[in-house]
Structure formats: structure tokens, C-alpha cells
Amino acid sequence: YINVPDYPSTIAVADVDDDGDKDIVCALVGLYSPNNKVAIMLWNSGTKTWETTTKTVGYGPRVFIGDANTDGKNDIICSNYRDDTISILLWNSGTSDWKSQIVLPLGNGPSNPIIKDFNHDGKNDIAVANWDDHDVSLLYWFEDNTPPSITINNPIQNGNYSAAPTFNVDISDNYYIHKKWYTLNANPTKHFFTSNEPISGWASVPDGTVALNFYANDTAGNEISESVFVNKDSIAPFHNKTESPPDPSL
């Protein structure tokens, strides 16, 4: 037996780490709550043992193995039934690991994916039947090396603020935005957001120059950042009012 960390579902068998040995990939779906992992069991021909690792995908995954980007290497593809998305884990020969998942939307209730060159352009594509929609999603492979764009409308450069300003940023991409977040100064804490809102963590930042760093990445893994510098002054101005003493003759 090979132990896996959660309730297993569909499995696929192929060489996923490009070492010539067949490996096992198992979708983990959970029992009482949905899971968003796959267990990857790599065969070690030297020790004759299985080495298990997990990767994050969408919720309710169904796993398939194939060459998604036509580079001659097997990748891991999961149609995520509860998310109505597909997760693609591309093998990176340079790091001997998988890149961060590419997440793309599908129809409702996607089933197992298949890989084939459907439009005869020499590159593999992905097809997924959507059970609840009674249709099929066709995903044509393309090379997206263009990061998203970020335009910071507010706060303004070198603006003075006492209370936390409400930021206003426009973020766009040729295809799909994956995540958006910001950081304050050199603090590594990521504040993820979906809409414009007051800056979180403003109260903990000392007065002075504050760097607001906005980030965005797309589903192809391209990332970009833009920063704006503002001045925080939370101390109310002090006004020393001098009054003349009362006139004793009055």
C-alpha cells in the first residue's frame, strides 16, 4: 500500500518527473469537506520506494497526465468539479519541480480532461466536457509572456494622508488575472483584494514616507508590480493660541 494524506479519487499513471520511471498522481477530494490537492507519488528506482509530495490545485479535482504545452514533457492537468476550473501544473526541467498552477475557467461541472491538437497548429490543446452545462470547453494553448498592467489612480504620488487612504487601481490582462495584492514598505505581508478599499495595516505603519506596492499576476504566471510613495502624518497640528489677559477695568 501507498499512504496518501487524504481521501483519494481518480488516479493517472505516467512519468511526470522526466526520469524514465512511471509515477502515480492521485486526486484528493476529501470526505466531509472538499480538498484541493493532488498527491504525486514518484518512483525512486535507486531505493525502490515511492516518494510522495502534494500540490495545490482546485477543489474537487479529477486528474489527467499529458503534455499540455507541447514541450515533450508530461504535465499534470486537473479539472476541478467544485470550482468549475482547470489547473495545469507544468513540469520545469530546470528546477526539477512543477511551476505554480495555471488556473483557467471552465463550464459548470467539468469532467475528465483530454489533450490533443484540436486546431491542427502543432500544439496540444485541452478539451473538457461540462456535465451541468451539456457542452465542451476547448482550451487552445498559447504562449503568454505578457504580464498584467497596473495603473494607480489613488493615492497620488507624494500625497499627504493621516487616515488610511482608499486605493483605486486599474489592473488588466490580455487573458485572465489570477491574484491581486499589495504590501506596505518592506513588510512581506500580502494584502489580497478583489476591489478598491481602504489600505489595510495603515495604523501599524509609522509616520513618514510609506511605499504602497501593488502586485498582480495572471494565470500564465506572469507578474508585475507598481509602487506609489505617500506621506503619512497622523499627528494633528498643534496650534498655540495666545490670549491677552482680561482688562481689569472692565
Automatic annotation (TrEMBL):
<dbReference type="InterPro" id="IPR028994">
    <property type="entry name" value="Integrin_alpha_N"/>
</dbReference>
<keyword id="KW-0732">Signal</keyword>
<protein>
    <recommendedName>
        <fullName>VCBS repeat-containing protein</fullName>
    </recommendedName>
</protein>
<dbReference type="Pfam" id="PF13517">
    <property type="entry name" value="FG-GAP_3"/>
</dbReference>
<dbReference type="InterPro" id="IPR013517">
    <property type="entry name" value="FG-GAP"/>
</dbReference>
